[in-house]
Amino acid sequence: MPRHYEDTETRRRQVAEAALRTIAEDGVARFTSRAVAGRVGISDGTLFRHFGSKEEIVLEAMRLLEQEIEAGMVDSGDPMEDLEQFFHHRAAFVGEEGSVGRLIFSDELIHLAGDEGRQVVEGWRRRSVGFLIDRLQRLHAEGQLRQDLDVPAMSMLVQGALLTFAMQASLGRAGSREDVRRRVVHAWRTLMKVLTP
Predict the structure, then answer these.
(1) DSSP of 49-78
(2) Tens digits of per-residue pLDDT, 124-164?
(3) CATH numbers and ranges of domains, the chain
(4) Rounded distance, CA 82 to CA 71, Å?
(5) Quick count: other Cβ atoms within 10 Å of Cβ 95?
(6) For residue 163, how far is the Cα from the chain centroid?
(7) Whole-angstrom Cα distance, residue 169 to residue 112?
(8) Helix axes 79-95, 151-170, angle to 10 degrees
(9) Phi, psi of 76 (to 5 degrees)
């Protein structure tokens, strides 16, 4: 039977996705080229035809993760709609069982990708917090949020709620996808009760 060969771009994506799954499910200690290659169904040698090092694999994996992070930050022109979409997207992403999304709250990737990885993580964290604070500031200025709470405090409440979803997933307490979605809706409604006048 003839072998099927993937083009370089497809194979690089498969390897990066496998790297994320390996780190998320098995931890940094079990992140090996053999583990990643096994998930893709290729040999170690084939793996390194597409990447120069394990660090390069992790950096590519971080780029995939970054794309998912950026997908939740939209500018609809309505800051409340933006904030709600950001919260729903991020909570579901980090809160689903076995989700690689929880890695955005950890430093596991930084340990594997060195200084360049640290810069990537710091960049996406800065953009996420900046997006959140921008929408909260706009809503606060429009009087849609409580005036007795400052924006940094509101930002911490939202980030804390998101972190809770990541922690539940990492402890294996996420439940089904439907359970996570229901909890996201409930958490959003609770946040709005706390943050709105």
Answers:
(1) HH-SSHHHHHHHHHHHHHHHHHHT----S-
(2) 889 999 999 999 999 999 999 999 999 999 999 999 999 89
(3) 8-55 (1.10.10.60), 65-195 (1.10.357)
(4) 11
(5) 28
(6) 11
(7) 22
(8) 20
(9) -90, -10
Q: For the chain, give percent helix, strand, coil, nearest 5.
A: 75, 0, 25
Whether residue 39 has pLDDT greater than 70: yes
Neighbours of 139 (CB within 10 A): 20
Q: Which residues contact 12 (CB under 8 A, 6 or more apart)?
A: 50, 51, 60
Judge contact between 28 and 89, C-beta under 8 A: no
Residue with tokens 């500018």: 75
CA distance 147 to 115: 40
